[in-house]
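Interim report, section 4.2 (structural modelling).
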Amino acid sequence: MKSINLITWPTIGYLLGGAGLTCLLVAGGLGLGLGLGLGLAALQVYGPRRAAALVGLYAWFFRGVPILVLMFLFHFGLVSWLEELVRACFNYRLRIPALASAVVVLGLCSGAYQSQIFRGAMLSIPAGQFRAARALGLTGTQAILSIILPQALRLSIPAWSNEYSILLKDSAIAYVIGVTEIMARFKAVASTNYQYLLMYSLAGLVYYFLTAVGVRLLLSLYDRVRWPGLAERAD
Amino acid sequence: MTEPVLEVSHISKSCGGRLILDDVSLSLNKGELKVLIGPSGGGKSTLLQCIHFLQTPDAGEIILEGRPASDMGRRHINVFRRQIGMIFQDFNLFDHLTAEHNVAIALRKVKKQSRAQALNRAREELARVGLADKGDLYPAQLSGGQKQRVSIARALAMDPKVMLLDEPTSALDPELIGEVLKVIADLSQSGMTMLMATHQIGFARHLTSEIIFMEAGRITESGPPAELLSTCGLSRAAGFCAKLNQLMGRG
Amino acid sequence: MAADYYQALGLELTRGFWLSLKIIGPSAVGGFLIGLVTGAVRGAGHPRFLARLLDGYVALFRGTALLVQIFIVYYGLPNLAQALNLPPFWKALLSLSPYQASVLVFALCSGAYHSEYIRGAVLSIGRGQFQAARALGFTRFQTFAHIVLPQALRRAWPGCGNEIIYLIKYSSLAFVVSARELTGAAQSVSNTYFRFTETFLVAGLYYLALVTLATWLFQRLEKAWARP
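Predicted structure of the assembly:
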């Protein structure tokens, strides 16, 4: 095989840049999903019944529609409308980059899943602790922020590391709307050197590596913040 | 007669169409320990939770040092609450915090004390319940009796005017009950005003000024222990206590 | 123009939906069967060599993006045949159609996830029952087939049902190797008429309906199979 010369240093730099963008997608999506998930879970567990129903509707939609469809719908549909609207109203050519659309879609989806994770964690904390906190004079918000959340967050880390590995792999879908992350760049290189098998296997290797490193990091974080009595990690 | 610290007047509460508290009134003077007894489901827990507004009573008034709770309004209910300490049957310690921090957290969040100040106070209170050396342990590392003592220290740190104890020993193994009862007895002797639901009648009769018997949401009997327990077999309360004493093997 | 659009939308999306179902059906069944065998072997840890090998397969498919897997099978395998200079029969065999490639990859990937649930359930059954059955004279295989697996399946089912729901959504990825299933159809309609929002919203509703139906069905099954 003459593949030795096919990958040059500039190419390697280009491919690694894709990994950087993937990390950005994952960090953005997970971060947005974390905020959304926590808020939605708190609403579902502690909020009024009607809010809980709305959260259920949200989760139903974002867990039922494929990310690929959402990416198209969002980036080519809604975002284009928004851009048109801004141009019509303010005479300003707004350009929302594909990266931003992708982060929002990944975040909205992840938020639906993360809300389920946090909801479970919040429900698993004995209700008595919330009552005890209120009995000591903490307000409801204080009790959630300083008693429930610190426990729910730590409790959720193992499930959250799973969400990380899912989101990382889903982020590859962003290439279809033109985000030049790992998938897009390996595809681009493969279509110039025709070494599809090699290039896509390498892409797979990069995903495998990122998954392993991320999960390892999260689980060691879990070990560090685990309090005595909290279950040791399963694996 | 001095003005009572806590006055409960004509409290009623129903839940799902069932009347759980039916026009209950009682009062506590400073330094008094009163004991609530009665069968499970008789409304003792609900009464304590209503006094603390963990459940909202449907009717009636709770008066603390002459100030009715209704004057304070919903917004200031936390101010009302923090003057009353509550001890739960199953401790309800915060699992992710050490014993020290369990005691300190409300000082920091509610009383806005500095971390160092709160921890100092926490250590004092832990020493008071005999746990000076356990401050760094997590709830999972403590025995049931130790957990309950931490929860008492946690309530004491807030300088409550009254303590409500909801069957503080009924989740404990028999050999651990003694240490908790001793702490409660010490507290009572140091002048803390307390209202306690319990089945430990043998213990209670020596410390309490009044035994209140509750059944089906109502106070059916009340009076000084000697009076209530000696009229043997006549009243429902005496029968209940005798049965309890038999079960507990204490007299 | 508008009438044209709605006609195309209805026609194309429904045609795409059928292709989607044709992709999902075999991959779901195939994936579940692969997962069942793989999970059982891995759970039993026997034969040991095979169990190790299957561990590797599962780690590989769970650790990489599904998109990468499709690209490897669709574009990479013909590449391999070329590089190894295989005879024409093998070249033809390794050049899969978009439909074949999608079903193969979805089944393999889904099987890897199914096997995790099955394996976990098998491990949770415990040695006691296994030993009791052996003591009754069951062979190792009989014990596994008659005692362990039926219980394991019941425990694994909620996870497996969930996996099939994921599969329904991920079947949309067949679009990237140009299968004209639901997403592919939506893409071509929206490109022709330049109406992205409505088209993909309708496509999304198709998926949502399918996922909701499947969820409901799986919950019914779970209840029907439940044992105290």
